[in-house]
Amino acid sequence: MRVTKKHAARLNEILDAAEQFFMKNGYEQTTINDILAKVEISKGAFYHYFKSKEDAMDAVVERIIRQMESDARAIAADPTLTAHQKMQRIISTANISDSSRGEFMEELHRPTNATLHQKSISGTIDMLAPIMADVIAQGAKEGVYHTAHPLETIEFILAGSHLVFDGGFFSRTPEELKSRMNALIRNIELLLGASEGSFAFLMKNFRKETGMNDK
């Protein structure tokens, strides 16, 4: 007897399978038949949920971004935190994610996943920028940030940091990355009108992500 699963459960199964194949083989090398075999559904069932493989790819990226958005909104809404504490936690949560998300984001840097990579960057910036802009506005009221353009400023910061540290665009030595992280930290402080050293925590996050020691 064939088991009929509820819509949301089946959708998540398809997205789980698609994400696994995108990670393992890359977007271009993954076929709809791969996903069908993994979930054990017909092609008609797949097209009930998605118009194409690209449509499924968009959904995988969106699911990851929506989880990041949920985390960021929860932090931003916490009344017990100062603006700078919120900023620190949002950045840390977005950069140092759980192992499954981390593996997926690492896979996005591969040349075979260029399309998926681009969509994830633009989607992440579009989602995070308004939330972080509200936090910056709170920081302006608290006197820790000083900028007349919170949204535009954080968009520049997010876009610039994604590009400069993206291994898919540039190949850099550990020392070159460290130098640029120091520059990024100081530029963030200047752009936000924050005190010098207030974003030094980013270097700690950077060392954790890259495994770089303190030397």
Tell me what you see in this structure.
The chain is an all-alpha fold and 215 residues long. It has a domain at 62-210: Tetracycline Repressor, domain 2 (Orthogonal Bundle). It is built from 10 helices and no strands. The chain has helices at residues 7-25, 32-39, 43-49, 53-76, 83-95, 99-108, 114-142, 150-164, 174-192, 201-210. Helix 1 (7-25) crosses helix 2 and helix 5 runs parallel beside helix 10 (201-210). It is globular. Residues 96-100 have low confidence and may be disordered.
Q: Unreliable stretches, pLDDT < 50, 5 or more residues?
A: 96-100
Q: What structural class do you assign from the helix and strand content? A: mainly alpha
- Examine the coordinates and then state which fold CATH places here, giving the name of the CATH topology of the domain at 62-210: Tetracycline Repressor, domain 2
Number of helices: 10
Label the overall shape: globular
* Rg, Å, rounded: 20 Å
Topology order in helix (H) and strand (E) letters: HHHHHHHHHH
Helix content bin: over 70%
Largest sheet: none
Question: How many E-type strands?
Answer: 0
The name of the CATH architecture of the domain at 62-210 is: Orthogonal Bundle
Strand content: under 5%
Overall pLDDT confidence: 85
CATH class call of the domain at 62-210: Mainly Alpha
Identify the CATH homologous superfamily of the domain at 62-210. Answer: Tetracycline Repressor, domain 2
- Distance, first to last CA: 63 Å
